[in-house]
Amino acid sequence: MRAAIAAENLTVSYDDFLALDDVSIDVASGESFGLVGESGSGKSTLLRAIAGLAPIAGGRIMLDGKTLDARHRDKAFYRRVQMVFQDPYGSLHPRQTVDRLLQEPLAIHGVGDAERRILRALDEVGLGSSFRFRYSHQLSGGQRQRIAIARALIIEPEIMLLDEPTSALDASVQAEVLNLLEQVRRDRKLTYIMVSHDLGVVTHMCERLAVMKSGKVVERLSSGDLVAGRISEAYTKNLMVASKGFVRKAALA
Amino acid sequence: MKPMLTVDDLRVSFPTRTGLIEAVRGVSFTLGRERLGIVGESGSGKSQTGRAIMGLTPAHARISASKLNFDGTDLLTAPAKVRRSLRGSRIAMILQDPKYSLNPVMSIGRQIVETLRTHENVGKREARDRAIAMLEAVQIRDAGRVFDLHPHEVSGGMGQRAMIAMMLIAGPELLIADEPTSALDVTVQLDVLRILDKLVAERGMGLIFISHDLRLVSSFCDRVIVMYAGRIVEEIAAGDLANAKHPYTQGLLNCMPTLGTDRHPLPVLDRKPEWAA
Questions:
Q1: Nearest to B5, CA basis, from B95, B96, B90
Q2: Are residues B268 and B208 in the same domain?
Q3: What does the pLDDT average to over B52-70?
Q4: Which parts of the sequence belong to the ABC transporter domain (chain B) (predicted)?
Q5: DSSP secondary-structure letter at B2?
Q6: A36 and A220 Cβ atoms separated by less than 8 Å
Q7: Where are the domains of chain A?
Q8: In chain B, what residues touch A138 (CB-CB under 8 Å)?
């Protein structure tokens, strides 16, 4: 099966610092792919490079087998690929109403029928039309992230890039947002690339995942392998231990 | 055992244009030399409870309690001078994000020394030596070098360790940790918790650990208080959490995706109005 989106030998550098070092991934259409690793491992950079937000120094990114220009992404690309950012407190314009926020992508892409689409998008993320004329400071963190998701979904993309979509949220709200993301993926047959430092979240959401460390992919495995503990890298094992919570030394002995 | 801290019917409210917001509504608990966890969602009043004990409630807030007693001192009626002498030296607080809570224009070492010299009459040389020893105690390698670094020059995990060093240098008896690891990486989180656990055990401190992560708290603390909408809905021994009675506690426990459980969709909290009553 041909990959919907793939990166081949991708390198991103900021001056002398290699943020991504020869990374290759491929994600099939309709698949949900996870990227895990600690801060600074390059997982967000990979996502940003795909979205055209990081300077590509080498390698290539392909959408449906066609190589994308390293410097410039056209509108057609953004029509198909949308991104949801980590912090809903920072990613929504503080002086725009929800209505205005959702108009923006429609205006950029020249999509008509805004009225109906906005109402549908709000409905889809479980907020309803009463939220339409609110400002983002009148919303809770979970509601804001729903708006960010609605903004990405409103132009009906095929691929969603999710950069830690729930790490700024409470555990109880996280569950709601993860359920929403799963629901829309099922309904619209979307392809996800999801970055998270939480192995529980990634294995819940994704079928396959890549473990990253200092700009490289150190291990590729399926969620099933991870859960069953079929891990070869010590680094991944470390992440596993960390995700299980605190264990007091005495209790181990 | 005589409790070190007694909180009885603590209330914190904020007057706003749209009416009185009651952040904490009648919280009562006692704390000995133990690890107590306070868990709840954003807005449940857990941080305001911690801040009220520390004396960091904003000036415009209304605070009342039938008892707020720390080791014989009534915190609510104590004059500002007494509270100042308690704060930092006997009660200390670790804040969430080292990026925002450390002074950006002061070296880490100087900030630690400042805390120490505020509360104890020590010379410069001794203060420096003790600060470096404290940095070593929180497992910072090359403490002498880190002493002269500014907060932006260190990683989040190291910044948080520096903050723990700063809070522990005056030897407090009660430590309030408000989401001390939420801003850190999963792998670093455990290092920081391990250090905190060791120091609290060695020094026989009382610890109040505030977090929204019920699993983390239950693995770290002896006893857990669960808060919802400004009230305590359940108090339970950490080892007993599996038998939690309140649906809110059960919901918090179940809503986390964990390795090896396949639940689609995840159970979400069905918030009942009577929980807040």
A1: B90
A2: yes
A3: 92
A4: 5-254
A5: -
A6: no
A7: 3-252
A8: none
- B266 and B134 fall within a common domain: no
The answer to which of A175-179, B70-74, B128-132, B213-217 has the lowest mean pLDDT is B213-217
The residue out of B116, B142, B170 marking a domain boundary is B170
Q: Are B175 and B94 in contact (CB under 8 A)?
A: yes
| Contact by Cβ (8 Å): A145, A166 | yes
pTM above 0.80, yes or no: yes
For B9: left if phi > 0, alpha if psi spans -120 to 50, otherwise beta; the answer is left
- B contacts of A246 (beta carbons < 8 Å): 190, 193-194, 197, 216, 219-220
Tokens of residue A26, six digits:
């491929």
Q: How far is the alpha carbon of B115 from chain A, nearest alpha carbon, in Å? A: 29
Examine the fold and report which residue of B149, B170, B191 is the final residue of a domain before the chain moves on: B170
User: What's the gap in Å between the CA of A134 and the closest CA on chain B?
Assistant: 17
Examine the domain organization and report whether B75 and B145 are in the same domain: no
Q: Do B142 and B105 fall into the same domain?
A: yes
Q: Are residues B250 and B141 in the same domain?
A: no
Residue B31: strand pairing partners? B5
The answer for B 103-162 residues in CB contact with A (under 8 A) is 156
Q: Residue B104 sits in which domain range? A: 98-170
Number of independent structural domains in chain B: 2
How is domain A3-252 classified at the CATH fold level? Rossmann fold (3.40.50)
Does B32 share its domain with B153?
A: no
Reference A121, options A112, A133, A111, A129; nearest CA is A129
B197–A248 CB contact, under 8 Å: yes
H/E stretch holding A139: none
Partner-chain contact B266 A178, CB within 8 Å? yes
If chain A, 253 residues long, is cut into consecutive pieces of 10 residues, what is the mean pLDDT of each piece?
Answer: 87 90 93 90 92 92 90 91 90 94 94 92 89 91 92 94 88 88 93 91 93 92 89 87 71 40
Contact B194 A249 (CB under 8 A): yes
Cα torsion through B38, B39, B42, B43, rounded to 10: -50
| Any A CB within 8 A of B59 CB | no
- Other CB atoms within a 10 A radius of the CB of residue B237 amount to 12
